[in-house]
Amino acid sequence: MAVLTITKDNFASEVLGSDKPVLIDFWASWCGPCRMMSPVVDDIAETTPAIKVGKVNVDEQPALAAQFGVQSIPTLIVIKNGQNVGESLGAKPKGAVLDFLRQCGAL
Fold first, then answer.
1. Residue 91: which CATH number?
2. Could you tell me the residue range of the domain that residue 24 belongs to?
3. Which one of 23, 71, 75, 84 counts the least CB within 10 Å of its CB?
4. Any idea which residues carry the catalytic annotation?
C-alpha cells in the first residue's frame, strides 16, 4: 500500500478510523535524517500490509505535530484503535522500525 499524506483534514478518517494500526512518520523536507528515513518508511508501506503508513509534514501540519508533542524529527508514532501505542525518535534502519512495530503490537 502506498504511503498516505496525513493532514488535519483526513486524520480522523485515515488514522483514528483505521481498522489497521497506523505508522505515522513526522518529517520535514529540510531534515537530513528524515530524508534517510523516507525510503525505509516507503518500503515498510509497500511490504507490510498489516499496517497503514502515513507521513505528516510538520511544516505543513504544525497542529498535528503539536497534538502529538513532536519536538524533534523524524518521529515515528504508532496509532492502534485510535490510541498512541508507541513513539520512536530519530533515523533507524528497517529492522529497527519493524522491531518497534512489533513492540507496539502493530505486527
1. 3.40.30.10
2. 4-103
3. 71
4. 31, 34
